[in-house]
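notes to self, project folder thing:

trying the whole complex as one job this time. last attempt i did each chain seperately and stitching them together was a nightmare. two parts in total, labels are on each line so i dont mix them up again. if this works i'll redo the older ones the same way
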Amino acid sequence: MPVMSYIDAVTQALREEMQRDEKVFVLGEDVGVRGGVFRATNGLIEEFGEQRVLDTPLTESAIAGVAVGASCYGMRPVAEIQFADFIMPAVNQIVSEAAKMRYRSNNAWHCPMVVRAPYGGGVHGALYHSQSVEAMFTCVPGLKVVTPSTPYDVKGLLKSAIRDEDPVLFFEHKRCYRLIKGEVPNEDYTVPIGKAEVKREGTDVTVISYGLTLHFALKAAEQLEKEGISVHVLDLRTLLPLDKEAILEAASKTGKVLIVHEDNLTGGVGGEVSAIIAQEAFFELDAPIRRLAGPDVPAMPYSPPLEKEFMLNPEKVANAIRELAEF
Amino acid sequence: MATDVTMPQLGESVTEGTITKWLKKPGDSVSKYEPLCEVATDKVNAEVPATVSGTVTELIAEEGATIEVGQLICRIEEEGGAAQDNGETKKEEAPAAQADTEPSETPKKADQPAEQGDTSMKRRYSPAVLRLAQENNIDLEQVQGTGKGGRITRKDILRIIEEGPLPAPVEKAQPAKEEKPAAAAPAQEKAAQPAAQKPAAPGVSVEPGDEEVPVSTVRRTIAQRMVTSKHEAPHAWTMVQADVTGLVQLRKKIKDDFKQREGISLTYLPFFIKAVVDSLKEFPYLNSVWGGDKIILKKRINISIAVATEDALYVPVIHDADEKSILGLAKAIHNLAEKTRAGKLTMEDLQGGTFTVNNTGSFGSIASQPIINYPQAAIISMESIVKQPVIHQDMIAVRDLVNLCLSLDHRILDGLMAGRFLQRVKERLEAYGPDTQI
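result (full assembly):
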């Protein structure tokens, strides 16, 4: 099985889906001739032409709006928002139009569209190129929010997202793009949306995470194994809808839960996960549910030491796990 | 709002109490100060009053369980709800908030290896632990926690479930009770636990034919107190002899009248106590307590008197003995002795002693070396009054003599002051004559 990077898995999924279904097309800023600022759409314009690989104006509201309209008419648009930070002008289209289309038209219309957006920090992107925006959308029924952490999941989930009949926000952690490599089958496969996955089995502490911090958790778990602490790691993969069953099972596995995400603590997905566990797995709990998340500050600092402080890392995660293990 | 009721501090040196009987059960309503349960502490039986009015929701401590002071024993759902309590609730929150502002202290503690003995979390059960314990009939009191602060973790319970039930030594020791329903088992186990925690003294072997007498709570308390006193307070001992011929004559003359008038016998003890009390006023250091970096001179003079029963020794207190006449003292002694023998001493009766008078003469002793009633400064024992030939006014005479023995805490007192004190007691006792008015 070939080993490829996270971003190459994005490209492969896009290419395969465009080959499979000619209704699939990509649009966004610099996705065509440039092949995307992160090279996610590299080579697509050459293969599929400018009719299916659209360079758009710097107008996120239009990118999303075009996708809404096209999808309503049966196309399968995959819109790229260059940085998740820039999604704000498109929020009205995504939240008020795409998310509600099926509901308000009484099933007459729906939006089978995907909005891809690189999110997250750790790349010296500072304020406008580092934000985690996923939690802003996980409170919107009608949307699906997907945040893969491995190349395998990227390919499988992106395919599922493109084939989904309703709008899917597909958030790719940009630090993972070239940092995370993994085996990806060449053949066609999908990973179901709404299914979390146990990435590591353990018995002392359960860590629930997604995206880049999932890798921090795995690293911490590896390190802690040497100290005799066995860590169970669940990758949420999809934030909306949450895989309740998997969350409850993972929480019950150890009774000690740590939820880790880079998105800031307040209002983050961790709060929702924690509430599910508290309500439905209360008698499995052996310790207060803990959350480890980005600080509640307005933005990622540009200063490298401050960025480092803002970002989580395997050590911070390991410390939190250790505390729970000792409890 | 549920209010936690904890084992109260039933006396200054009391550290734990055994719930002998619950007077309320869950669902019962109680009014403030109404007794919730009976508790046997070191030396006294007491009732724990409700701290609030409301409904008993949960009995945490089982009958027969020995609970440390401050530990939760039951919960009362307060009546009237939040509106009434707001004031109190807020007050309680304040210290909690303060604690929050110093979070650095707690993690630091966690790193210290000294924390080994910390069991502050021993009875903080997580939902998982409670559920598993209940489902598998595990008595959490028997489980050794491996978590922070001795907390019993879910893993601890899972390990027990996997490794099979806890050993139950009690059942083997008391096969007769095996027939009893399961509910009785926890209580038995608990009763056995403290004993098990105290290992047998080293070098003590039990040979065939020897009888093993289990140590009662009172006996254990006495043992512990005596050890504490001997361990903490460096004892010094001194003795004087007093000629109480006059006192003997006085008592002989008035005792029948006294008995008829007051209904109680007139003994020598009130005279001794009076002499001691009056002398204590002259030597306040004898009526003091060692406070580590200070000596606390007690204002009140409360005399502890040793009262023996067949199996134990109690030390009830005559409060404000300096305000009492011989008659008052005689009555107080009589009452306390009666109450002791009837097992009706209250907490109040046992608290606050500042000096102890020990009447060893009552069983014929002529000299004794009493152990100080810790943390008091000294203890005096009155020995038997014995007729002896002595030189009296340059002649051989038969006189009634008594030895007064004093043990003193040498940290507080030196021999000089103790000697002077004893001299004053002696003088006072010798001043009695057949015609003294009491």
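what i see at first glance: The longest helix of chain A spans residues 6-20.
need to look closer tmrw
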